[in-house]
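Q: Hemerythrin, please. Structure only.
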Amino acid sequence: MSNTPEFPWSDRYLLGYNPIDDTHREFVDCVDALLRASDDQVGAALEAFARHAEAHFAQEDGWMTEGEFPARDCHIDEHAKVMASVREVQELVAQGNYEIARELAHALIDWFPGHADYMDSALATWMVNKSHKGRPLVLRRKEHIQE
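A: Structure for Hemerythrin:
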């Protein structure tokens, strides 16, 4: 197993609200660990991701519900659908289908940037406005892109 992340953190995921940004770093780390897990490790890596996702989504769902965030229903529903998929994959992994966990990780890599860019960025803006009466400030490092 390589030490090089298959799903590395990128500043493009920063939204300017530290609690969300910190949780997103953990999300990326958990998905990367799931991708890189051996068959012997995949069950534990999937369980770690599931625990992270439950806490991550519950935190955001709570902010949206308590703060009466306008787009909360769609956002909360998307979280629930991801968790339903995670639970289905956990059942399949328990039956010995380890590759399905890696397929889930790849699906999460495809899903996450759009979710963060559209749904979570709106939530981050809402949270910053409610707490500081302003908009998020995001400073991103220039990243070298290899082709």
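A: Brief note, in case it's useful. The radius of gyration is 16 Å.
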